[in-house]
Design brief:
It is a single chain. The protein has 343 residues and is of the alpha/beta class. Helices cover 22% and strands 28% of the residues. α5 links the parallel β13 (183-187) and β14 (212-215). The longest helix is centred in the last third of the chain and has 19 residues, at 305-323. It is elongated. The model has no long low-confidence stretch (mean pLDDT 93). The chain binds flavin-adenine dinucleotide. Residues 17-23, 40-43, 48-50, 53-54, 59, 61, 93-94, 122-128, 261, 293-294, 303-306, 308 line the site of flavin-adenine dinucleotide.
Length: 343
Amino acid sequence: MDTRSDQSLQQTDVAIIGTGPVGLFAVFECGMLDMRCHVFDALEVPGGQCAALYPEKPIYDIPGYPRIDAALLIDRLFEQAAPFAPTYHLGHAVTGLERVDNGFVVTNAAGVRVAARAVVIAAGGGAFGPNRPPLEGIEAFEGKSVFYLVRRREDFRGKRIVIAGGGDSAVDWALSLAELAAHTMVVHRRAKFRAAPQSLLRLEQLYEAGRVELVTPYQLAGLEGVDGRLDAVVVADLAGNTRRLEADCLLPFFGLATQLGPLADWDLVFDEHRVAVDPATCASSRAGIFAIGDICTYPGKLKLILTGFAEAAVAAHAIHPLVHPGEALHFEYSTTKGVPGSA
Ligand SMILES: Cc1cc2nc3c(=O)[nH]c(=O)nc-3n(C[C@H](O)[C@H](O)[C@H](O)COP(=O)(O)OP(=O)(O)OC[C@H]3O[C@@H](n4cnc5c(N)ncnc54)[C@H](O)[C@@H]3O)c2cc1C
């Protein structure tokens, strides 16, 4: 199939699956070699594990940053990729990959189709998706007053918040958001929480000081509100007794499920659920498909952000001849070449 005449297709040089730190840096590395990118993520915000799992934790092993919060690292990577004007397709998992004459067509769950010469899989442990509580009509509230991850604490200032869950994420976010929320309630189906001892101690202190309300042993039972705006969260105990918690936001922390999903069906060679690549190029077993970051493996692979950054550079150089056939690639430092818009 020649995709150039298909109007419903968006065209690019490289399709990157995953906007984790490594996928974002791949945009920069491809851009430096004059390759345009479309980038896909199942999550609505870029940042992969950094954004979804530990945005406010400091990272200490990013070269040049003695300490940087994970969310800030993502902001910086986003900024670094911006001069190359990538197109982001967020909030929908990539579901399809089709081989075509001049590359691949990548499709996501929203039906977006992008034709690219090469595909870079930077999918980490797989597509992130929240474990949703089975509440009727919850979809209408998602992204407006029900959130499965906290992107910016400030968004919750002055709000009445219900946090649901009994693990580290629920407890850590209760401690953090209680500092700025109008009222913080934590709903858990057991009286005992499972979190780090230090965090539990702090939760107890906030409870005693009246800064956090512990709603146990209760489970989520329903949502009240209109047009996605929450008025109250209804909870029930095992005997079926219900309580109505007036609230502006619900944050269910029942874990994020990762799914390799369609990647598993793309005829790639896997080694213990990771895409096996040649470390000299990050090429997978299928020509034109590359894998970098946590999703790839080779002898001696370290699952670190800095390793993924180097893999992004390696893959970009290996992809260049596919996008610009016959063009010699002259290795240049960024100090020599600059970036678009730099002086
Ligand atoms: C608590 C914690 C602390 C950590 N601390 C450090 C540290 O100090 N230093 C360090 O170097 N590393 C640390 N790590 C590991 C680091 O976060 C990972 O190595 C890094 O996030 C890998 O980046 P990535 O871009 O490869 O993948 P990820 O960050 O996992 O991002 C992959 C993205 O791909 C998306 N995706 C997957 N499949 C699809 C699909 N089919 N369609 C659309 N999107 C898809 C996912 O939704 C996700 O957003 C830590 C990890 C955790 C959990």
